[in-house]
Amino acid sequence: MSPKPTTLAIDIGGTxxxxxxxxxxxxxxTPVQRLNTPTKEMPTALLKALHALSSKMGSFSRxxxxxxxxxxxxVTQCAANLEGDWKGFPLAQELxxxxxxxxxxxxxxxxxxxxxxxxxxxxxxxxxxxxxxSSLFSEGRLLPNCEFGHLPSGxxxxxxxxxxxxxxxxxxxxxxxxxxxxxxxVQETLTIFFSTFNPTxxxxxxxxxxxxxxxxxxxxxxxxxxxxxGLLGGIALWK
Length: 239
Ligand code: BGC
Prior knowledge:
This protein is an alpha/beta fold and 239 residues long. The chain has 2 domains: 7-111, Nucleotidyltransferase, domain 5 (2-Layer Sandwich), CATH 3.30.420; 119-231, 2-Layer Sandwich (Nucleotidyltransferase, domain 5), CATH 3.30.420.40. Helix content is 27%, strand content 27%. It is built from 7 helices and 14 strands. The protein has helices spanning 44-54, 91-99, 108-116, 165-169, 171-177, 179-197, 229-232; strands at 7-12, 16-22, 33-36, 62-67, 71-72, 75-76, 103-107, 122-128, 132-138, 141-143, 152-156, 162-164, 201-205, 222-224. The strands form 4 sheets. A 5-stranded mixed β-sheet has the order 3-2-1-4-7. The two termini are 15 Å apart. It binds beta-D-glucopyranose (BGC). Beta-D-glucopyranose is lined by residues 68-70, 80-81, 107-109, 127, 129, 131, 133, 147, 149, 166.
């Protein structure tokens, strides 16, 4: 590998696939390119789409990939917001064969967190997008694959089905109940997570965190991070 590796950073979202190139310090070298996430014939369709996306990116010597589900050693376990069966799919190996560069894959919220945190105290990251992602750190050390979005929220729907935090805060719900009601739910969730984990800071990332930029009602220990953090954090997989 060259002494100054260029990293292809990919963020697989429930709605978009995004990519950029990163320099060795993790600074973006190119504008973000994106493609729609396939909605059928997965996982094959995802590999095809990532091949198409990466071929638009110029040259790179390794790849970091954020996946919207649980990942153990590059092997996917589940993905609530992707079509198809992801149990036991060796995504890192498949991409390595396809892209012909060393490839590391981790949960998307874990990568977002690695790009967002300061490395001090207990830090919690929540990503507000198609689903609700989460990552938890102590003194900069990640506890991988924390799925707080799938915890029961204590609410039930009209058919008496228990609702997870993700069921109440997803993008689909935002579209149906409107921004103000959805923001109230996020605030209620922040209160619960502050009193449960007692984090030094909570970071809000993901596309829908934009609704909290400059919001005077956010608690002082909450920081909104740009959505690009989901790509920039990819550099940390090589540290
Ligand atoms: C998945 C998480 C992921 C989040 C955001 C959830 O449905 O279970 O692993 O981080 O969506 O993509």
